[in-house]
């Protein structure tokens, strides 16, 4: 893969998907910075694993380490304050009356992309990389491809810059995400994903499953477990 002589900013939460997106960006761009958001999330443990993942990814591949730039953490407490959701309150994780999961934080990805765009403007980064996925997006309307394309247009018009929003996971499922991780960084990177990333909605890191840490019952854990199982089965065929 040829590297573009440009800077990318990865929306990096510390979860599995954003970590794979970080590896994807490090394999393509000459400089890669990361941004995370503290919005009062119930699973704030994801913020604690971010520095460790970055450090280990840099050590895993010297090329990645050379291209990995600054990390930024943006406080967005206001988003959590206006969100009565299962990711920001002690609320049951279920499907609400409107058909959306209670883990849906209204406007979250729109806010994330807006702040990422503002940061990218200041840092001279033209590329934004995010882990939105329409294939198994758990019912989140702000993960849809149409939403992301609309946000790219809004950022370009509103900031008069030619940003490109990349979503390398948009059309693949969790099994294919594991396969992409293996393609990007081999078995060592997959091991890092399983051991260090955090995706569980309730923030449980007390149990290490074959597919990683988590409660094992929330939608994020179920998706990850099913994807890992399907990926392992495909590899054995």
Automatic annotation (TrEMBL):
InterPro entries: QueC, Rossmann-like_a/b/a_fold
Annotated residues for binding of Zn(2+): 200, 215, 218, 221
Catalysis performed (reactions): 7-carboxy-7-carbaguanine + NH4(+) + 2 ATP = 7-cyano-7-carbaguanine + 2 AMP + 2 diphosphate + 2 H(+)
Cofactor, free-text remark: Binds 1 zinc ion per subunit.
Its EC number(s): 6.3.4.20
Highest taxon in the source lineage: Bacteria
CDD domains assigned: QueC-like
Gene3D superfamilies: HUPs
Molecular function per GO: ATP binding; ligase activity, forming carbon-nitrogen bonds; zinc ion binding
Keyword DNA damage: no
GO biological process: tRNA queuosine(34) biosynthetic process
Residue sites binding ATP per the record: 12-22
PANTHER family hit by this protein: 7-CYANO-7-DEAZAGUANINE SYNTHASE
UniProt protein name: 7-cyano-7-deazaguanine synthase
Annotated organism of origin: Rhodoplanes elegans
Lineage: Bacteria, Pseudomonadati, Pseudomonadota, Alphaproteobacteria, Hyphomicrobiales
Gene it is expressed from: queC
């Amino acid at each position: 893969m040829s590297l573009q002589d440009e800077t990318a900013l990865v929306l990096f939460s510390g979860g599995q998907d954003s970590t794979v997106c970080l590896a994807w960006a490090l394999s393509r761009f000459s400089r890669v910075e990361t941004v995370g958001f503290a919005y009062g999330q119930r699973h704030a443990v994801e913020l604690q694993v971010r520095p460790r993942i970055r450090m280990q990814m840099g050590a895993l591949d010297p090329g990645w380490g050379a291209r990995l730039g600054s990390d930024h953490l943006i406080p967005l407490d206001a988003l959590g304050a206006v969100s009565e959701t299962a990711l920001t309150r002690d609320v049951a994780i279920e499907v609400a009356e409107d058909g959306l999961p209670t883990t849906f934080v209204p406007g979250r990805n729109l806010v994330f992309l807006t702040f990422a765009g503002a940061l990218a403007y200041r840092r001279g980064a033209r590329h934004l990389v995010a882990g939105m996925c329409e294939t198994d997006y758990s019912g989140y309307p702000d993960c849809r491809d149409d939403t992301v394309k609309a946000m790219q247009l809004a950022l370009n018009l509103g900031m008069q810059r030619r940003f490109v929003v990349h979503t390398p996971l948009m059309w693949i499922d969790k099994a294919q995400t594991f396969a992409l991780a293996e393609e990007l960084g081999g078995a060592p990177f997959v091991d890092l994903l399983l051991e260090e990333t955090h995706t569980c909605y309730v923030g449980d890191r007390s149990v290490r499953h074959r597919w990683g840490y988590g409660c094992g019952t929330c939608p994020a854990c179920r998706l990850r477990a099913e994807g890992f199982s399907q990926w392992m089965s495909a590899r054995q065929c």
